[in-house]
Amino acid sequence: MKNTAELNILFQKYLIQNCSPEEVKQLLDYFGTAQADQEWLELAIEKILDEQLDDAAELAIQEKLDIGFQQILTKRNEAAKKQVSQLRLQYTKWAIAASLFLVVGMALFHFIKSPEKNIQLVHHSELKPGADRARLTLADGTVIDLEQAANGKLSNKEGTTVTKTADGRLVYDTKTGKNENDRVAYHTLVTPRGGQYKIILPDGSAAWLNAASSLRFPTYFAGKERRVELRGEGYFEVKKNATQPFVVTASGQEVTVLGTHFNINAYQESNTIKTTLLEGAVRISKGNSNCLLAPGEAAYLNNGNNKIAILKNVDTDAAIAWKDGRFSFDETNIKDAMQQIARWYDVDIVYDGDFSNVELTGVISRGTNAEQVLKLFKGMHQIDYIIKGRSITIIPYKRP
Question: What is the number of other CB atoms lying within 10 angstroms of the CB of residue 30?
C-alpha cells in the first residue's frame, strides 16, 4: 500500500463494490499486517456512511450496524472460511481481514437495500459515464450517428464497405485491385465528450479513439505511406507492412511506424503531445526535432519550442488505461485528472480555491458514475465538490 490516500480510495471502492480481485487482495494484505490501523478503519466506515446516508437515518444506521457486527462476529470462523474459499487466499491473516470486510460489506448492503424511506443514497444519475458514441462523416458530407445507426452495412461506395458490428466497432473493407491513380476519398470519425469508439482501418490496423477526439483517414491507403490525422487521444495497433509505413499526424507531430502498438495524447488544450510506445518502434518528428522510441518509453513534445523529452520505463498500462475502461492516476495534478473526468462525463469543472499542490492517486473504473468517482477523491481528504446540473465545482476539503 503506497500511502493513506491510496488506502482511502481502495477502501471506498470496496464499499461501492467496485474493487477488482487484485485490489481486494491488496486491502486484505494490508489489514492482515501488524501495521494495519484498526482505528483508521472504524473512522473510515463512519465517514463513508455519513457521506452516503442522510442525517435522519443516523440512529437507525447505528442500531443496524451494531446488529450487523454482532451477527457476523458470532459466525466469524464460517465467514472467514467462505471468504478464503472465494478468493483462494493462502494465509490466515487474509481470512481474519476478510471477516472484517464482510461485516462492513453486509452492513452497507443492508442499508442501501433497506425499504425504509429515510435511509437512501443520493445519486446524480444524469452524470453517467460515457459510452460507445461517435459520428462518421463520409467523403460526400453525409454524417452518420453511430450510436443510433443499426448494426450492419452503413456505406458501400467506391469499392469500400463500411460496417458497424454488434460489439461496437467500425470496420472498413476495401476491394483489392486499387492503384495510385484511383481517387482517394477521406472519412472522419469524431467522438464527443462522453464518447469513445474503435475502428478497423482499411489496412486492418485498429484504432481506439478517446472522448473528444477525431481521426481523419482515407478509405484505402495508396502510395508509399499509410497516413492518418489524429486530434485528441488515440491508441493504435498497426498492421505490419514494411513497404508502406504508417504515419499519424497530431498537432504537427508525425509518428512513423511499420507495425507497432502505441498511444498518442494530443488534446489541443495541452501544450504537450505525449506518445507512449508499448510494442515495436516509432520515429517521432516535428520541425527539426526527431527521436526514436523503444518499448516502455514515452516522448513528450513541447508544442511551444518543438523540443522532445524522452522518459524511460514508463507505466504503459497507465497510458492506455482509458482504452481498457479505467482512469489511472499516479500523483496526477488535480486539474489534469479532472480534465479527464470532464471529457468522459461531459461535465464542466470549476475551481473555487487554490489546488495547485493537490495530486490524486488511484485506479477507478470508467464505468463508475461521476459522483462515486468524486467521493473517492473526497476520501483522500484534499478536495470536496458541489454538483449542480452538469457543472462540478471543486472546493477545499474541510474536516468534519
Answer: 18
